[in-house]
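Chapter summary example: a protein plus magnesium ion.
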Amino acid sequence: MRRRRGAARRARRGRVPEAGGGALVPDQVPAVRLTSITKRFPGVVANRDINLSIEPGEVHALCGENGAGKSTLMKILYGMQRPDEGTIEISGEQVSFRTPADAIARGIGMVHQHFKLADNLTVLENVILGAEPRAKGWLRGRIDFAAARARIQEMSKAYGLRVDPDVLVETLGVGERQRVEILKVLYRGARVLILDEPTAVLVPQEVEELFGNLRELRAEGLTVLFISHKLDEVLSVADTISVIRRGTTVATRLDPSQVTSRRLAELMVGSQLPTPELRDSTVTEDVQLEVGGLTVLTPQGRPVVDDVSLRIRRGEIVGLAGVEGNGQSELIEAIMGLRSADAGTIVFGGEDIAHWPTRRRREAGIAYIPEDRHRHGLVLEASLWENRVLGHQTQRPNVRGPWVDRRGARRDTTRIVREYDVRTPGIDVPAAALSGGNQQKLIVGREMSGEPHLLIAAHPTRGIDVGAQAAIWDYLRQARADGLAVLLISADLEELIGMSDTLHVILRGRLVAEVDPRTVTPEELGSAMTGAGDPA
Ligand SMILES: Nc1ncnc2c1ncn2[C@@H]1O[C@H](COP(=O)(O)OP(=O)(O)OP(=O)(O)O)[C@@H](O)[C@H]1O
Ligand SMILES: [Mg+2]
């Protein structure tokens, strides 16, 4: 259906999908044309002689492994980085952007890999921030909230972007935040929308919703450029695909009907697609974590975690499936001590830790890969080795007696960089200099250090390319074989099914079902998560 529509659209524009390599040859002025773009950072060439053209009204996907240079290229197009060489043309006109404001003025908008909303403001305030409409008449100069609200409601209707303008961003889940980010960009008049890994944070239903939104945008004549590691999705939504490898384009304007995800993966990394799976069971009888009747209330007294009981044994991976915002984050935060529980017990290795501070829980051997790595995982301005110390500032090899052991921490950071294949010019660069996937590998490496007894892994492979993903699954399997207990949360249902020994479904704060990961399908799990289906 979609394919045929795509073909019709192409035919209407008089484009001919020719034979050679399945590339589509445009015949009109591109919405964006990047020519010979090169960008160097100390020790790295992030982009090397990149050539790319994007047609107006198309959804164009950009693929490539972690650190390939995708985000850098998009930041150049959005005026956040200046290229060392090369030119940018927008609708045939050469431009030179010094700041994102310049790019916005030319109709380029970008939603980042990590969201940049102000938590303590409402959706409406976030959307209009910096682009406030001013009232006329006797209220001249004041912010015209009514006009802004009307416009947001109209836009969210036109593009099917469901949002409530008056709630605090703090209370929103990831999928909703993303819609706010998109609205914010559209509100500024973007005609070319750049989305950096928009689906990494979404569950399948939300991905469908986003793709529906993208199609609406396309129908309105907007051009969409998006980055994704999920090749099946790329094939399902993109009109054309380009692949970047080690800083340069190795294929551009591929026709999705002419390539397979395997071929794309080969273009990206030159290796086969790995799959998540567990072989022999390593589950023991020793219960490492037992949560009983755990309840967390909102300030208004509504339960977000509602009487949850679950146990994780040594050598067991317990998966938790749920649509974003059904209490997963709050449950994890309660176990980590980042949020206090209103009722219930948390017994770790036989001790009730419900009233322990986070530091003590970590010291006792609870490792944590957080969902939002910028808010809870890394200090972006600090170096890699300083980030190695973070959250582990009382433990070896980071300290000796009362002192920070710089040498120990540095040596161990070098080990993590090597073992987890963190692509970086060195351990003294700030974490901000790493690509998104490489930041994640650093966090996983740090949290797996020091042989924890329990690992709480929220989306451990989010934003990570296929090769690195396989490596992280290997680490999880190895740690599990060594007796680690794992609580796994993931929006990637294949990963959740493939990597869990036991799989619970959480809905509105309650564990509503336990499914058998050996037999359940992603579709069945998806409907159990929305409360629609009859869980197995
Ligand atoms: N501000 C910076 N300073 C120094 N190096 C940087 C900076 N930004 C990116 N790099 C480096 O440039 C290269 C490309 O990074 P980029 O973020 O563009 O990769 P990516 O393709 O988006 O990867 P991912 O899929 O992991 O997000 C990497 O080696 C990265 O470490
Ligand atoms: Mg990136």
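Key point: The first strand starts at residue 16 and ends at 17.
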